[in-house]
Design brief:
This protein is mostly helical. The protein is built from four helices and no strands.
Length: 127
């Protein structure tokens, strides 16, 4: 009887590390862009200093900033998830379902490289 694989090979881990590094680079760039928009550091307009706002414009701008802040917070959470995945690669525990202890399918890890649950475990947790 064959025993189940308990971890991914070093070659597999290297492949996942490359995927994560690429996603991390893009995620950090996007986060930086969002934060500079929130800080108005790339803006040359007078929108934040002009006293001639209309109430609707203020509401729209506040909503836009709130939306951007929410996106930045999600991006920061995504970055932390990717960084945690890199630590799991270093520890050689990457790709192991934290509920079942079985390997998460490669296809899922390629699509969601910071995943800690297989689709089945995630769905079972919801119910």
């Amino acid at each position: 009887m064959a025993t189940a694989k308990v971890r991914y090979s070093d070659e597999d881990l290297a492949e996942f590390e490359k995927i994560i590094d690429e996603k991390l680079t893009l995620a950090r760039r996007d986060y930086k862009d969002m934060m500079s928009q929130l800080d108005n550091s790339t803006s040359n307009d007078v929108a934040d200093t002009s006293p001639t706002y209309h109430a609707v414009e203020e509401g729209t701008e506040a909503q836009s900033k709130e939306d951007l802040l929410n996106m930045a917070q999600r991006q920061q959470k995504f970055i932390k998830g990717l960084e945690a995945a890199l630590i799991r690669i270093q520890n050689k525990t990457y790709g192991i379902d934290r509920i079942t202890g079985e390997l998460i399918p490669k296809e899922r890890l390629r699509a969601v490289p910071h995943a800690t649950l297989s689709v089945e475990s995630k769905n079972a947790r919801k119910h």
